[in-house]
Amino acid sequence: GGGCEAASGCSACPSGTFKESDSVAGCTPCPLGSYGSAVGATSSAVCARCVQGATTTGTGRTSAADCVCAGGAYDIREAGTNALTECEACPVGALCADGTCALDPLASSQSCPGGVSVNGTGSVGVWALGGDSRFVLQGCG
Prior knowledge:
Blueprint: E1 17-18, E2 28-29, E3 34-35, E4 48-49, E5 54-56, E6 67-69, E7 73-77, E8 84-89, E9 94-97, E10 100-103, E11 109-111, E12 117-119, E13 125-129, E14 135-140
Antiparallel strand pairs: 1-2, 3-4, 5-6, 7-8, 9-10, 11-12, 13-14
């Protein structure tokens, strides 16, 4: 194939996509669970996989910040870039959805660690990663 000449009206595939051969076909998005930041990528190898236990909310994503942990785990992200670096299992007694942890909303009443009481349905625990890299309940709401 001859590639794309500047005057031919071609344009580079945007980030999150690639095109492996000369053709009239469009750019292919990086698959679910991966992302690509390069513009004009010519191979699916440009699509990096999210960390183990993570996926993306759709195809054609452009950075590790687009990765989210699957249910039962919470996100650990890099400061500044918000890139997902690790998925950590939720603590016992907590459920995770969309990278955040909450106490089981199906339980009618429940005790939070540290003696904080949670009653009723839909109660949410506010969790944070402590300095010792352990997940710590900050409060209940």
